[in-house]
Amino acid sequence: MVLCPDHMNEAAPMPQPYFNVPNLETAGTAYVACLTNQVDIRGLAMLSHMKFYLLWLLMGLLTGIGLMTINNIGSDARAIWHHYDDSASSEFIQERQLMHVQMLSFMSFCGRLTSGIGSDIIVRKLRMSRFWCLFISSTIFLLAQVCGTQIDNPHALGFLSGLTGLAYGFLFGVYPALVAETFGVNGLSQNWGSMTLAPIVFGNVFNLVYGQIYDRHSIILPDGQRDCKDGLYCYRNAYFVTLGASLVGVGISLWSIHHDWIAKLKKHKERDRAREA
After folding, report:
1. Can you give the pTM of this predicted structure?
2. Which partner for 18 in 14, 29, 121, 248 could form a disulfide, CB atoms 3.0-4.6 Å apart?
3. What is the SS3 assignment for the chain?
4. pLDDT per residue as tens, the chain (277 positions)
């Protein structure tokens, strides 16, 4: 009987005692068999698995939260600067807006780099669930939304853009690995494509919420552009909405970690019974 180890995606070679086989040659054959006998769920078959809905919902919530700030950080900066210093020129405000876009991009890069390395450490070294990375991303998003509801000084607005970029990059750095781990690598391109439909839905929803709230506090200038003089209150309620969504994301992440832990315990018990048999 061949008993495959739990972490087949580890880089280190599997020693013979990892398998319930008599010799090293057979162990090598068993190792290849385990690698080629991975889960393979793709397309419509994912709809019968609860984890698909959890991953899709979490992907949508978190990316939607991030996209709201990414698409509207320029409006945030303009509203706060107009309220903080009405003498600020358009050129100056545009420079501040560009700075926040650059900060979002740089912190997203840092998040992707960190999560790629960090998720492997969590799984291979610490033997913990990769869903912990989603919990970290959700928590950072939560902190960013708190900043969005409280920061009324434009000099501190970098905390909002920086944390959002970090969380967004951290999310996208680990999510393909989660999808591959859950549904298999053979159909990854198709499955990942299905997951990336979620940001389209939730991104539009949160952006519509932001737009409606911002429009209520703004006036239309003669050139057709909207201008808001209320500062933080131009968009604050939108961040209260995403704050609630972040709390839901943290809750789903923790539930997924617990569910993953229960599934591994069940797997270990089945393995022990198979070895005793």
Report:
1. 0.82
2. 14
3. CCCCCCCCCCCCCCCHHHCCCCCHHHHHHHHHHHHHCCCCCCHHHHHHCHHHHHHHHHHHHHHHHHHHHHHHHHHHHHHHHHHHCCCCCHHHHHHHHHHHHHHHHHHHHHHHHHHHHHHHHHHHHCCCCCHHHHHHHHHHHHHHHHHHHHCCCHHHCHHHHHHHHHHHHHHHHHHHHHHHHHHCCCCHHHHHHHHCCHHHHHHHHHHHHHHHHHHHCCEECCCCCEECCCHHHHCHHHHHHHHHHHHHHHHHHHHHHHHHHHHHHHHHHHHHHHHHC
4. 444 545 444 444 444 444 444 444 444 444 444 444 577 788 888 888 888 899 999 999 999 999 999 999 999 999 999 899 888 888 999 999 999 999 999 999 999 999 888 888 888 888 888 889 999 999 999 999 999 999 999 999 999 999 999 999 999 999 998 898 888 888 888 889 899 999 999 999 999 999 999 999 888 878 777 788 899 999 999 999 999 999 999 999 999 888 888 878 887 777 777 777 6
In the block, which residue shows the tokens 């409280």?
Answer: 150
